[in-house]
Specification:
Blueprint: H1 11-18, H2 22-28, H3 32-51, H4 56-59, H5 66-82, H6 84-91, H7 99-113, H8 124-144, H9 151-167
Helix pairs in contact: 3-5, 3-7, 5-9, 6-8, 7-8, 8-9
């Protein structure tokens, strides 16, 4: 997939690369789209599990604890970096064109589940799209550039760009 892209990838190429036979592949997947869905679902499940640790009280507190926020950023960045090859490939032009939209939808679900969207001071859809588009774009750019920055450097970038928004007047912290 990295060489030719997902659209050009055949099941035969998958079988040759994975060194498995056709019947084994079709035992688990109906086609290459099912395989892609399984890979993405696994990646998103891990992302979701990390997101369960989001410090909700800190995001909406009048004086959020920066150390707690930093710990959350660290967990998120480490997960992305540990799965960097998948993120990089799926987010690339040769990957899944819908990958970033799926990631954004996952983030939206997390925000809605935690009722964070209801605590904003601007229309909800703008707050949601603004913050999550920024986060998703930063992750995508980091992946597309081959994780040039270390996880620690990216964590600082993420913190420097996101924390001021979360600490600002966007959230109703009263």
């Amino acid at each position: 997939m990295a060489l030719e892209g997902y659209a050009s990838l055949s099941v035969k190429q998958i079988l040759q690369t994975a060194k498995i036979n056709r019947s084994t592949f079709y035992t688990y997947f109906n086609n290459k789209n099912d395989l892609l869905d399984a890979v993405e679902e696994d990646l998103f499940q891990g992302f979701h599990e990390v997101s369960l640790d989001v410090p909700l009280n800190e995001i909406t507190a009048s004086q959020p604890n920066k150390k707690i926020m930093q710990e959350y950023y660290h967990k998120l960045v480490e997960y992305i970096y540990q799965n960097g090859q998948k993120f990089e490939l799926l987010a690339s032009d040769k990957g899944d064109p819908a990958f970033l939209s799926k990631l954004l939808k996952l983030d939206q679900g997390i925000w809605e589940t935690n009722k964070l969207i209801k605590k904003v001071t601007v229309p909800q859809h703008y707050a949601f799209m603004g913050i999550l588009s920024l986060i998703t774009s930063l992750i995508n750019d980091w992946a597309k550039h081959g994780f040039q920055e270390s996880p620690q450097e990216f964590e600082k970038i993420l913190s420097a760009m996101i924390t001021p928004i979360l600490l600002g007047d966007l959230f109703n912290n009263n």
